Amino acid sequence: MKWESNDGVEYAVSFDYRQPNMHDISQKLHKAFVLVCENRRDDGRESCGVTEPGLRAAIKEAMKTAGLPVRVLSTSCMDHCKEGPTVAFMPMDAMFGDVHIDDIPELVTKMRKYLSS
Ligand code: FES
After folding, report:
1. Could you give the CA distance from residue 47 to residue 29 in angstroms, rounded to a whole number?
2. What is the pLDDT of residues 48-66, one digit of tens each?
């Protein structure tokens, strides 16, 4: 089975996430997902979890305080280590690099705009 992403590229997947029952469940719980790379490399190479520890927890708290219906999840490497710490909004397909604790109010504002558009 195939589906087409927002970038126009077709990907082969083993299931259709748009299948009504699965889609309905996610829409009831969360309007969007915030993926926060917490990959840690202890061998000296750059990695988001080493650069800004505690970022995911701080984003989660800020989104909750703002009352935004999003789920904040930890991920491993998203292949933007040199621009990290890396954060992504899904399904908006928005990605942010060099994110630090001070940037969280801006992330909340951006998420609020995405959800209201
Ligand atoms: S370690 Fe975070 S994007 Fe690679």
Report:
1. 31
2. 888 888 999 999 999 999 9
